[in-house]
Design goal:
three-stranded antiparallel sheet; 3 strands; mainly alpha
């Protein structure tokens, strides 16, 4: 049996984090008969560590653990099952310029617009990378109250007739405003469910569920109206007046 020649390269490789973890899996964690599985687990762990502690982060950016859009679940659930690390630009030059537009940061309109713009951008940046932020995320990132962040997002949605992809909306959970009415309006105008989900930044599962619930409700309502109509046709009319002798 030919043994592997020891070289500086192979000796150095034994000092890697991968080899240290592999040694523990094979000798301490009961994977001595499953090196292939151990290698796969270690690869996943190292990928996660690399995402969470990346060193190539540009200035004015931050890595943030966001809930995955898929979240490993079907249907709405508050449970967090999957996370994805997204890169967020903390502040842009255009947003800083907003503070100067109204004579400085001490002016309430400037602060409101500044915070509103970056909240919306953070949510969209996370969503484009496969994650969704919560009001708590926005609060921790900005140092402002969750209620204030939620207020600014609702105002932005009303002013721009669009949906901001925050977790409560995308996963249809929590106190976020349900967008069921807008989904149904677009559906009745003939828009496809896929287009509705994309334009409203809503999950396809939630859009499909809204439409299904609407169709069930409409069918029941039509059935109830038909039943009342048939009964009214078959029921004889009676006189309700008084009779005098």
């Amino acid at each position: 049996m030919k043994t592997q020649t020891s070289t500086p390269e192979t000796r150095w490789a034994k000092r890697s984090l991968h080899q240290q973890l592999l040694h523990k899996f094979l000798n301490e964690y009961g994977y001595e008969r499953g090196p292939v599985v151990a290698h796969a687990i270690i690869a996943d762990i190292l990928t996660l560590v690399e995402q969470a502690y990346a060193t190539d982060l540009p200035p004015r950016h931050v890595y943030w653990p966001a809930v995955a859009v898929a979240n490993g679940a079907t249907g709405k659930t508050p449970e967090i099952r999957d996370l994805v690390h997204v890169r967020l630009h903390l502040v842009t030059d255009a947003e800083v310029a907003l503070l100067s537009a109204d004579q400085g940061v001490d002016q309430p309109p400037a602060r409101r617009t500044f915070n509103q713009q970056r909240f919306v951008r953070w949510c969209q940046e996370a969503y484009d990378q496969g994650g969704v932020l919560t009001l708590l995320d926005l609060s921790l990132l900005s140092g402002l109250a969750e209620s204030y962040a939620g207020q600014l997002l609702r105002q932005y949605e009303q002013e721009h007739a669009m949906t901001v992809p925050i977790r409560g909306t995308v996963h249809d959970i929590g106190p976020s405003v349900s967008h069921k009415a807008e989904v149904i309006r677009r559906y009745l105008r003939g828009q496809s469910p896929a287009d509705i989900a994309r334009e409203l930044n809503h999950s396809q599962h939630a859009v499909d569920r809204y439409i299904k619930d609407y169709e069930v409700t409409r069918t029941l309502a039509q059935s109830s109206r038909c039943t009342r109509f048939r009964r009214s046709r078959s029921t004889p009319r009676h006189s309700c007046g008084n009779t005098f002798s």
